[in-house]
Amino acid sequence: MDGTILTITTITSNVVTTLGLVGVAAFFYSKRRNLIQFQFSVMLSCVERFQKLFPELLGKEKDIWRIREYIDLANEELFYFQRGYIPKEVIVEWLDGMLLYLPVYVLGSALPVNYELLPYPEIHDQKLLAGYPRLKKAFKIESALLSKELGGKLTGELKRKVIKEIAKNLGVILSDKHFKEAMILDEVGNLNSRQN
């Protein structure tokens, strides 16, 4: 009889332990799946807003309110970068795109290094980043070595360094792997197949 009770107790204990482990695994699987769905919905929302805004940004007339909407969207995206809501290879791609529109400042210079290339110099001229400390901090290159290299067009390895520095300013560390997985166009519109 003692053996039967011990066997039943052991079996019951094993079943309860197994159910507990299955429950914990299911919890973590569900949590991971929800995070992926959340990340996807955040990215989709940002992409939809940008696609709606982009044709208006390309219009012949410079609408300051549309430019402000873009700045607001970019600031929100940087917040998502900081919180880890956007995959790092997507961060590389989006920062690459932001470099086309947003001013990049360096140590010792009041004028952005990419000022002549900006489609909207009004962002700098009218101080439209004044209410966006996250954007101002991110797009200010404080590395003295990198600041010396900058001067106008951001291409190749220099662009890569700037993207890494902007991400670092946000507390996001990007590796070579993230650049390899990102889809970035070079200065003539060709897809960079090698981002070493």
Give structural attributes.
single chain; about 200 residues; mainly alpha; two-stranded parallel ribbon; 8 helices; 2 strands
Structure, explained:
With 196 residues, the protein is mainly alpha-helical. It has one domain (40-181). The protein is built from eight helices and two strands; from the N terminus they run αααβααβααα. A two-stranded parallel sheet has the order 1-2. Helix 1 (2-57) runs antiparallel to helix 2 and helix 3 (88-98) crosses helix 7. The longest helix has 56 residues, at 2-57. The protein is elongated. The model has no long low-confidence stretch (mean pLDDT 82).
Quick rundown:
The chain is built from eight helices and two strands. The protein is elongated and about 90 Å long. It is mostly helical and 196 residues long.
Strand order, biggest sheet?
1-2
Helical/strand content category: mainly alpha
Approximate shape: elongated
In whole angstroms, the N-to-C terminal distance is 71 Å
Provide the β-strand percentage band. under 5%
The number of distinct structural domains comes to 1
Please, what is the oligomeric state? single chain
Number of H/I helices: 8
Rg (C-alpha, Å): 24 Å
